[in-house]
Design goal:
The complex is a heterodimer of chains A (206) and B (272). Chain A has 206 residues and is mostly helical. Chain A has 8 helices and no strands. Chain A starts with a helix and ends in an 11-residue tail after the last helix. The chains are: A mainly alpha (206), B alpha/beta (272).
Chain lengths: 206, 272
């Protein structure tokens, strides 16, 4: 019964949101605006559910001393500290919450992201091999694009940026377009299957 | 960790730091895409309103921060009003801080020359909702003021009052702006992106669904050049140039080493 109710809701909401685009009646517009508001409210509750889900998962991991449980302790400490700071002092400019975000979270996340440069350099030396004709083309393309996208490449040769742009705008873009068209068709097909009640994985795999 | 890996890490660190200290300052030409966005903002009336959405995580701030700064500076220099918001929770504080900092430097007043709406979850409904009635999605701004009582907030009812939306993003959010705001409400969308995302958005640019793209640290450096105000983007280009060159050298060196190894193994096999 619960599944049927969810499927009926998804079918009606999906069909309405698809059809209202073509209906100019004021009542359709009011319903559309109401649904948009509901979506925001549901999303806000979903965040709360998500946070509790994460807390429960990590408490379980700590309780069973699973591999990496110390990371879970760090995560929960972060959740607790930020929640206390947020509720106690607010989240505006100049608050402790904001200070932790600016001076801890942002630099730490940026640092982790920056580590990519080190790993890419290491991987480039150790693994990026021209073992066949195709991989040789890939290696050449990578070198040209890397140099063509920075001022040094322009300084080395004015042709490099043009060749780099051609690689990005012609062969790479052709592949990207194919992927985008595939994604678009897949989204339409999946949406139709949800509206028709054939796609039910959103019910949790039941 | 292998010895060669340690050495590579050390060399990357030394090269990046050296490039930032010695600053070789290679000449940089401005791409057509960046110039297009610059000209677009430059052509707007001084009373126009530009919406800037900070749709990124804190991790990409070193790359998208200079982009956002250059665009905000340009808008303020032109007297354009800015409505800031975030559709990624992590972009909320970063976006507010960025506009606030630049507004203080430019002497702009909150409420009349810029406002910040804050964050809303469920970006699809937020984007669609702002097309109907902005006040229904954000009744109060980030500082808690009623939008209806704010001089700038009361001017904006939906996208018809917005000259341009710029999504400062490190992921797929500009796609949603195109699909829901441009396709349905016909508002102009531009994207300020991390460099790796550019190829994903060129099809939208060619179909004119995206009005413009400024990409990566290079895009920020180009924009700063157009503003004649070198900043973090221009400073970062030296380090990026050096690291790209180093990686190219490492690829070539790695391949030569592998080729020599293969050759010596083949030679040994033939001798046996």
């Amino acid at each position: 019964m619960r599944d049927r109710l969810a499927i009926i809701t998804a079918t009606l909401a999906g069909a309405f949101m698809a059809l209202q685009y073509f209906i100019t009646l004021p009542i359709a517009n009011s319903a559309y605006r109401a649904i948009l508001s509901w979506m925001q409210i549901i999303a806000a509750f979903a965040i709360v559910v998500g946070v509790f889900g994460v807390i429960r998962l990590h408490l379980e991991r700590i309780g069973r001393k699973r591999a990496g449980w110390l990371y879970s302790v760090t995560l929960l400490a972060g959740v607790l500290v930020m929640t206390i700071l947020g509720f106690a002092g607010g989240i505006d400019r100049g608050t402790s919450f904001q200070w932790v975000f600016d001076h801890w979270q942002a630099p730490m996340q940026s640092t982790v992201f920056s580590l990519l440069a080190f790993y890419i350099a290491s991987a480039a030396y150790r693994g990026f091999r021209a073992r066949s004709g195709e991989s040789a083309i890939l290696v050449m393309a990578a070198i040209i694009v890397m140099l063509g996208r920075v001022p040094l490449g322009e300084w080395l040769s004015p042709i490099l940026p043009n060749v780099s742009d051609w690689i990005l705008n012609v062969p790479a873009l052709a592949a990207k377009r194919a992927i985008l068209i595939g994604i678009g068709l897949g989204m339409v097909a999946t949406s139709l299957k949800v509206i028709a009640g054939l796609e039910r994985t959103y019910l949790g795999g039941r | 960790m292998g010895t060669s890996r340690r050495w590579i890490f050390a060399v990357v660190g030394v090269v990046a730091v050296a490039a930032m200290i010695f600053r070789p300052g290679f000449p940089l030409s401005v791409s057509q895409e960046t110039r297009h966005v610059f000209d677009l903002i430059d052509s707007l009336d001084s009373n126009s309103v530009v919406m800037i959405s900070f749709d990124h995580e804190a991790s990409s701030l070193p790359e998208v921060g200079p982009l956002g700064t250059a665009i905000v500076d340009h808008c303020f220099r032109k007297g354009i009003r800015i409505v800031g918001l975030a559709l990624f929770s992590e972009g909320t504080a970063a976006g507010y801080e960025l506009i606030n900092r630049r507004a203080s430097a430019a002497g702009k007043t909150y409420g009349t020359e810029w406002i910040y709406l804050g964050f809303r979850p469920q970006y699809t409904s937020a984007i669609l909702g702002m097309g109907e009635d902005l006040g229904e999605v954000f009744s109060r701004d980030y500082e808690g003021h009623s939008l209806a009582e704010s001089p700038l907030g009361s001017r904006i009812h939906n996208y018809r009052d917005i000259a341009l939306v710029i999504s400062v993003a490190d992921g797929s959010m500009p796609t949603y702006w195109v699909e829901y705001a441009q396709a349905r409400y016909n508002v102009k969308i531009a994207a300020a992106l991390t460099a790796v995302m550019v190829t994903s958005y060129i099809p939208y640019l060619e179909s004119h669904q995206l009005t413009g793209i400024v990409a990566g640290l290079r895009g920020a450096a180009e924009y700063e050049q157009l503003l004649s105000a070198p900043g973090a983007g221009s400073r970062g280009m030296d380090a990026q140039s050096a690291i790209h060159a180093l990686i190219a050298v490492l690829i070539v060196a790695g391949n030569i080493q592998a080729w020599r190894k293969r050759r010596s193994q083949t030679g040994r096999g033939t001798n046996q």
